[in-house]
Specification:
The chain is mainly alpha-helical and 121 residues long. It has 6 helices and no strands. The chain has helices at 5-27, 36-42, 51-69, 73-83, 89-96, 100-120. α3 packs across α6, α4 packs across α6 (100-120) and α5 crosses α6. The chain is elongated. This is RNA polymerase sigma factor 70 region 4 type 2 domain-containing protein.
Length: 121
């Protein structure tokens, strides 16, 4: 198909931009700079977890879940908003309708329970 010079230039620029985007995505595939170290070390490793690591991770998760279950519903909700959603104490206070200090006390109570459970086992 024959196209004008202007259309040809436009298509070439579009192809070039697509190629640049592809390279940028490849450079930051895991949030780090794409370099020889990552290619040599990260890509050659197996992504499978060792059985011992898997078991330790599962056991730690069970312990943390047990600690969260020992908390009140309010404490657990506030802590999860803080830890998983990344909200600030003042934002959680606005959501829950309470003070920032109440949120901080709830989060600290959960932290103490988790720390206590992880240290005893």
């Amino acid at each position: 198909m024959e196209v004008s010079v202007e259309v040809g230039k436009y298509l070439d620029r579009a192809d070039h931009k697509t190629e640049n985007l592809f390279h940028e995505q490849r450079r930051h595939w895991d949030g780090r700079e794409f370099d020889e170290y990552i290619i040599a070390h990260e890509c050659s490793r197996s992504y499978y977890e060792m059985p011992e690591d898997w078991l330790c991770r599962k056991e730690t998760l069970r312990e943390i879940t047990a600690a969260l279950e020992s908390c009140t519903e309010k404490q657990r909700y506030r802590f999860l908003l803080y830890a998983l959603e990344g909200l600030r104490c003042s934002q959680i206070g606005n959501i829950c309708g309470c003070s920032k200090s109440a949120i901080m006390r709830s989060i600290e109570a959960v932290r103490r329970k988790v720390k206590c459970i992880l240290q005893t086992e």
